[in-house]
Write a structure and sequence with these properties.
Blueprint (H helix, E strand, L loop, with lengths): L5 E7 L11 E6 L5 H9 L17 E6 L3 E5 L10 H17 L3 E9 L6 H12 L4 E6 L9 H11 L8 E2 L8 H14 L2
Parallel strand pairs: 2-4, 2-5, 5-6, 6-7
Antiparallel strand pairs: 1-3, 3-4
Amino acid sequence: MPPLAMQFVMSAGDARDLPDSGAEVAVVGRSNVGKSSLVNALSGRTGLALVSKTPGRTRLLNLFTVDGMGTLVDCPGYGYAEASKSMRASWQAMIERYLLEREPLSMVIALVDGEIGPTKLDVQLLDWLRANELPHTIVATKHDKVKSSQRSKRVKELAAGCRLEPHDIVWVSAAKGTGIDRLRSLMTIWLSTGG
């Protein structure tokens, strides 16, 4: 599947400042899980979303248009230890308000680091998404970092840690392109059907 035509629109510190959208997909995950790299891989462009070696660089809701179908929002990463406690709390409140109140939201992509598996914070996020009945899909990043001899075991372990079946997890590698076509296809479905 060809890259999605994506354009950066704006950054916002409050969901109420975002423009209307027909349908929207949100990307959430721990700091350094590869959110910005994934956005770039979906678009087939290296510099669309800023990628940093330093975790916690995404501090606002970053909105992108997607192929004339809808929008994608890259949310700040959670669990970033270098930020102050009050700043982390304000990010969490901003993300939760956005996820609960954003009308066009049709899917939440919850990223989990495929190399290390779900952390305590990842499990808390998944529990919160389930408790609030928000539609979500778990995407495991960094497929290329998992040794081929360990992959089938890691797929089962990660799915169990997320309380899902292995086929429910979408595995990707932004670096190698693994699974990106599948995720682009899913994005097209989510944005065209509103879920």
